[in-house]
Amino acid sequence: MTTANSQGSERSEGAAPGPAPYTSLAALREAHLTLRGSGEAAAATATTPSDRIGAIRRFLTDARRAGAFLSDDGERRAAQGILDYWSGELVTLPGAKPADYKSSLLDPPDPKHATREQEQEQEQQSPTNTSDERALIRWTAFARQWNDSKRNPGYLLTGDAIHQAARFRAVDHGIDDLVTASEAAQHARRKWIRAIAATMVITVVGCAALVAFWQFWVLDNLRRSYLSELKANGSKQTHALHRWDQLQAWLPPLDASGTRSVRNIALPGIRLNSPNFAEVAFTNVSFAHGHLAEASFTQAVFSVAGATRQNDLRGADLRRTQFRGARIHSTSLFGANLYRSVFDRATLCDVDFSEASLRSASFWAVSLDDKTRESLGNTAWWQAVGWRWSMIQELANASGGDADRMAERLKHLKASQGFREEIDRDREKFRTASSGTPTALALNDIAWTLAIWGIDISNPRPAPSRLQGADPCSLQGVPGTAREAAERALCILNAADAEQKKDDLYADLVAGIKDTLAYVLMQSGPDHMAEAVKLFQELEKESPTFFNDSVETRFRYAIAQYAAGLDKAAAVKAFNAALRTYQPTHELQTLRDYIFKVPEFVDTLQKSVDGRWPSISPQEGCQAGAGGAGSAAE
Question: 613 phi and psi, to 5 degrees?
């Protein structure tokens, strides 16, 4: 910062200092107001900006010298505020010089009028005053910009800036106007925010009240009304179930256990979450392709009357559904999803299970008639559990017979939803797999799925890309048989480089694929049994850990040994040892010709099954149920 004398020289443009014209704060203020008035009058005349700049510079020079006559701190601050005001005014005018941007400070008090103590206090306060002076110039300029922009709201202050500028509102009316407008805008903004917040609170509370009203009054009354209609007969039952389906997202699971009967209902595609129909009597109902997962039909009765020939549950989603102790007559479950459904101690008469998914479904102690047993042959019945030994023998042997009957059963198996989902998933995995080991694993999955379903084992119809006798390692595209898939997977792993073969997982991968291929060869006919035995022997020698840990592999190896005419006593012993910890499923169907013709195998299997699923007294036969046909199987 320049000294007061040099600064004054610059401001007066070389004029020699004369006697101080202002010897009091009152005189300084009067000159200040006079200069302001002349500036407002000059705005409407032809006075040039240079004349205005010269007048302000001369005033600042004279006003600075008034400090020699002012010793009171309050008076000096007021006088300094006037200097700061005109310093800010000066820098906003066109033609301002760099020297005009320097603060103009009051001269120190004259020793004749001020004590040394006051001079020291003035010196101590000067740094703070200097900071305030600069701030005042900045806010004055900002206020003028706001005013020149026709008071554009974009120039208004916010937050802490308002508090900083408010310190100078008494010094300059322009700053005062800016702060006042900024405070008003901030108040309006806060008021708007509070209004929005209040509106949101009211909206949320209102919505919550509406939801509560809908949930605890409207829906509760609807629920009571629908349950009353369900206990009536006729069209009211259809209306009640249809409306419950539409409002299922809001209503609790339907509990119709107090309903005695449901008659003449046709609601295909109905959706009910975990409905409870325990002990309800159904007559002439159609829930085809409905979604009734986790429903309860415990001790329910399904029957037909009049011209209706079947209750229709075709393609229904009945996963984890309870049919314990139910009496089901003349009912179609064709293509239904019965995953983990329970039919324990149920009576099944003329029930069509064709193409249904029976994975992990339970049929312990059921009573079946001939028509039901015949339809079970069109499913992967071996995926279910709980079968009595006599039922296993009947279902396995029923899969044989003439070629037309076998072709019909195979057609149903290939069309079943369970098989299509599994094989489509494996084939898609193959299409998207990268070369090498991932492709081999995908091929093995295809081979294994076909093997456990007993579908497309080997010898497909010749095709341009898959000729009879062609080298499996040269084939491309999605494999058509389980044997082709397994052999191609083995080719890929055998072609791996030496470094890959050192991998710890390599031996287990090869062992798994050889196990799959051996199982496929066992299903390919007696002529291929020796090849299967050879693969099992390689497994036992090359991968003893895999062989010993896989009890199902040792179970199939024992069957292959016996069928190939090797040491039959050792094969029976190995078979019996495996059954201590392994419960065969798909092998009972796919290897039936090699199991049920060996008395030693049959005896051990029967004991194993009877121990796992003990016999109990049979339920009533089909003659006692409505629409029944044939005799009870158990």
Answer: -125, 80
Q: Which of 105, 108, 21 lies closest to 71, judged by CA?
A: 108
Q: Which of 116, 111, 53, 109 is nearest to 86 (CA)?
A: 53
**Contact (CB, 8 A) for 608 and 579:** yes
Handedness of CA 173, 178, 181, 183 (dihedral sign): negative
Residue 518: closest CA among 447, 463, 456, 589: 447
Residue ranges in 382-416 assigned as alpha helix (H) = 389-398, 403-415
Which tens digit of pLDDT belongs to each residue from 231-280?
Answer: 887 788 999 999 999 988 888 899 998 889 999 999 999 999 999 999 99
Q: Where in the chain is the domain with CATH 2.160.20?
A: 260-408
Rg (CA), the chain: 49
| CATH architecture, domain 417-624 | Alpha Horseshoe (1.25)
Read off the amino acid at residue 72.
Answer: D
**CB atoms closer than 10 angstroms to residue 105:** 22
Instruction: Give helix then strand counts, H and E, for the chain.
Output: 24, 7
Take residue 188 and report the two structure tokens written for it: 């309006």
Report the amino acid identity of residue 179.
Answer: V
Q: Which of 98, 102, 81, 41 has the alpha carbon at shortest distance from 175? A: 81
Structure tokens at 542: 């090359």
pTM confidence score: 0.66
* DSSP run (H or E) holding 492: helix 482-494
Domain with CATH 1.25.40 in the chain: 417-624
Residue 451: is it exposed, middle or buried by C-beta count within 10 angstroms (0-12/13-18/19+)?
buried
- pLDDT tens per residue across span 464-492: 444 445 677 778 889 999 999 999 999 99
In whole angstroms, give the CA distance from residue 562 to residue 112. 133
CATH architecture of 260-408: 3 Solenoid (2.160)
Decide: 578 and 556 in contact? Cβ < 8 Å. no
